[in-house]
Design a protein that fits this description.
Blueprint lengths: L9 H34 L17 E6 L8 E5 L8 E3 L4 E11 L14 E12 L2 E8 L10 E2 L4 E4 L11 E7 L2 E3 L2 E2 L2 E2 L9 E6 L9
Antiparallel strand pairs: 1-2, 1-13, 2-9, 3-8, 4-5, 4-7, 5-6, 6-9, 9-10, 11-12
Length: 216
């Protein structure tokens, strides 16, 4: 009768099992740490609202609005003067760029082919962390953003240009203000825009005070 066949030394097997248990435990701790790094800041109370400015040039008047189905608090900016394409998009407030890339797909709408096929999502976009859980988002930019992830930007610094990438029907800037993961009503220069969550259509003209220091 054949006896039980074993390979290796029993102590070696025990050491191997302990090694894998330790490795799994370290992986679990690392995963919990990663989750805490992402989730815990969102549970903290937000800081005071930054003095956000319109994301366009000082003294310029733009059409600002939204429409049913566009999304709660989302704001679209359309220039009233000059070329619709390529106008500068500015940071609403100082902060750190956390995203600078492509949201969804670009599509084929360009100044040379404005009726080209639309893409998906936001196209070229930028997201800026302003501290205190506040952030802003800028979508449908014409070309790759002029800033990089991790870069510090000043209020009024150019981050891109008006375009129509992503799911966009015409050149414009889709803009959002957020606290943590929640969109909120946009405020500009300390005043609420009036674009709320009631899924109504709004169209208004606002003048930007996103000006260099010392300039009215």
């Amino acid at each position: 009768m054949l006896g039980r066949v074993t390979t290796g030394h029993p102590r070696t097997h025990r050491r191997t099992r302990r090694f894998w248990k330790l490795l799994l435990a370290l992986g679990a701790v690392a995963a919990l740490g990663a989750v805490a790094y992402v989730v815990v800041p969102q549970l903290l109370p937000p800081g005071p609202r930054p003095l956000f400015q319109m994301p366009v040039g000082c003294g310029e008047t733009w059409q600002v609005g939204t429409y049913p189905g566009h999304g709660e608090y989302d704001v679209d900016f359309f220039p009233l003067e000059g070329d619709q394409w390529g106008q500068p998009v500015l940071a609403s407030y100082q902060g750190t760029v956390t995203v600078a890339g492509i949201n969804g797909s670009l599509g084929g709408r360009t100044p040379a082919d404005p009726d080209g096929p639309p893409g998906r999502g936001g196209g070229y976009w930028v997201k800026i962390d302003h501290g205190g859980r506040w952030e802003t988002q800028y979508l449908h930019l014409l070309e790759p953003p002029l800033v990089e992830e991790g870069q510090r930007v000043a209020q009024g610094e150019q981050i891109g240009r008006i375009g129509s990438t992503g799911n966009s029907g015409a050149p414009h800037l889709h803009y959002e203000q957020r606290v943590g993961w929640q969109k909120v009503e946009t405020w500009f220069d300390g005043v609420p825009s009036g674009i709320t969550s009631d899924d109504a259509e709004y169209t208004m003209k606002l003048t930007s005070n996103n000006c260099p220091d010392g300039q009215p």
